[in-house]
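During the second half of the funding period, the structural biology subgroup turned its attention to how the target accommodates small molecules. The most pressing case was zinc ion, which had performed well in the primary screen but for which no bound structure existed. We therefore specified the complex as follows and requested a full 3D prediction, including the ligand pose.
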Amino acid sequence: MNVLISLDGISYRSFAGYMQQRLENGYSCCKKLITTFPSVTFTAHAAAMTGNQFDRHGVFDNIVARPETMERVALYGDHEILCNEALHKQTIFHSLARNAGTSCCIHWPMTSGNPYIHHLVTESSSKKKLKANVSVEEIDRVALHETTQAIKAGIYDLIATRFVGYDALSHQYGKDSPEAMHCLELLTTHLDQIEQTLKETQKPFNLIIFSDHGQSDVQSFFYPNEILAKSQWKQHFRNKQIRFVGDGSGALLFYSSLAHQQNKEIMAFFNQIPEVHRFYELAGDKPSACKPFGILDLKHMVCGEDIAFPEQPKYQEMKSLHGYHPANVDEMNGFLLCLGDAFTKSKVIEETHIENIAPTLAQLFRIAHPCDGQPIKDIFKEYE
Ligand SMILES: [Zn+2]
């Protein structure tokens, strides 16, 4: 029995106070799990589950645009743009199924329609079953219940569960707010209960816990489409040839049907703006349905939104956010913990990359899973 838990949105710094106790209880830990850029849920989970970077899995953000029309597409609720065979076939769930293994996913992003998952409980299906205005704590309680039931059923080789409460409350109240910290405390008791349930089966088990990205407090707001609409490129903006896309994030995707030289000029223009950290051009020409020309990384504590007049800001109440380049804003990075029969005890590793999770799972199952990442060998007993 192998269980993978994602604690959404908890920075390695916010979790540091809980690390020592887990180490004393035999967990090995990776203090810093280097996340993706942009440091957002879908991109990070795609990296964790495929072991690949976005040039291969094609998940650039939680919100993308159709390059031909500039239509903005929010991918929440597992949109078919993402949840298709090309992505599903790259996941560890596919590699496991090919080797006659079974998996169960609970509130895990981008799993809708994945035919290689044997039991699927999506977040949207749980929300539909619960009454309106249900709290995130209640959604996480469902995830906990489903997880312990799946462990007790004893029929899955891999159970993957995501807890969403901390991330949601952190956005709403701030990463260190009493609301978010109370939720974090509650999630640690959920982890204890999962560990206890695994031990009660009296069968070999492995438990991996990680966080997909951190959070950082918001200080100011930035609207790059409003800047485009007043710039020398305003006609191109009106003609829907250029557009930034993002939803209250530390990074926005830039789409363009203009010539490369013009895009370079736009990038140079934005690179002069004080709120901008760096404008990254996406190299490589791998075809992908929603690939942007580049990604605009903002400076720490600047929240970007893709509105243009007369649209009104939607995220001004948001207290914490993520998305920034993890090399620039360190608290975007998560952490990883593991406990179980295959793992060495109480070992501390300084850092590893999130795309190493899929190959690490493949190593646990002793199956092939071709990808960019590498197994985290330092946590395995067999390499001691
Ligand atoms: Zn997340």
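Two results from this model are relevant to the next phase. The pocket of zinc ion is lined by residues 8-9, 41, 167, 212-213 (CB under 6 Å). The chain is about 35% helix and 25% strand.
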